[in-house]
Design brief:
alpha/beta, 9-stranded mixed beta sheet, 11 helices
Amino acid sequence: MRYPTPLELALAARALADEHPAEARLRQAGTSRAGQPLWLLSVAPAAGGGAASARPRRNVLVVAGAHANEPVGGATALSLARRVLHDPAPRAACGWHFLLCADPDGADLHRTPRPYSLLDYHRNFYRPPGPEQPEWAPSLLPPDRLPPETLALTALIDELRPVLQVSLHATDLGGSWVQLTRDIPGLAEPFGKSAAELRIPVENGASDAAGWPSPGPGIFVIPQPGSEAAGVFHPEDTRLSTWYHAHRYAGTTAIVEVPMWASDLVDDPAPHPDPRGALRMLAGRLAADTALVAGMREALRPRPLPYGDPAAAPLLRAVDWTLALIPRITAEWAGSGAPAEATAAHIASIDAFGRRLSLRAAAMLLRVLRGQGHPAAPALDRLVTGWCEEFAARFQARWVPVATQVEHQARTVLATYERLLAQHRQFTDSP
């Protein structure tokens, strides 16, 4: 099994809708910047439903492909659609809707349907800058400058008013974790059980969720507005993203992360002996690695972009965006913001985060240099190759088959829905 392309997702969804014309429907929910359709596959609530049928219909919205370099979500969305079609229980009183790829333009630029190694994954790596990412754009741009993918997504949320929105994400190397805009009690148990059965480590100290409340292993609740706790690794305000757009309709959003390559280092709960010393070391390494990439980027600036290479401009925007993030991060790691106490898992997660930042910038820049036939391309190629090998060796990376990634992500989505529904029933049935 490999990661399907946006076109393959659309064709598979069309076939599924044709097989189940009374229950499934495929429609265009918007258009990308490059004119590609944004496809929504919908599965209607089950007929009947007993007492549940008297209640107002609810919806679940599942968003795949919001990050171009995280391709597993589309395969998971199709798997979930098939499951809810064959099992009426999840849709007893709820319609399910799957945005198959929120950023098809970005997915076309990140061309790794079957990566065999971290190096293979990075050979054609692409991740757009924050303002061009559908979910993040509202936290970085004024409303009149939002990209069409974001407008389509927020319009869907306004239309469906989902009780649950799920965003399907992935990490290149590490473990699995879930971020929630509101706590969903009891989710940690089925999530952890699935991860254990499938030999996927639970990322207990995810750098994306540093300092956030954690009601259970691998489960993190995004701090509410007004809280002092905030992510230090991104300039975006998570609470202005499309994840929170569902809150205006009393909805909850879950972000489900699954690794392409697993590492048990991110699941180590032992206390780290010297977190501040480790972060100072990581900050120094990241600064040095970034300086190498930035130097090559600066050497490229006087040269015009290559004619006929439409990928060069978005790649360079993404390189510049990534490089601009790093000084703030290194300052935080080297300064007083570093924790006095932390687990080995948390430091490992930060280590991986820093490695992937400089590696991604280098990999995207390498694509441009190659396209130009730039004399610096061989040296940067050696650098990217070495960093990929060091990353995999340091974290003892092992490949997680695509089918296993899909299975864990699908299980987690269904468990999230079941626990949320139980929470709503408890609230409704209470005197």
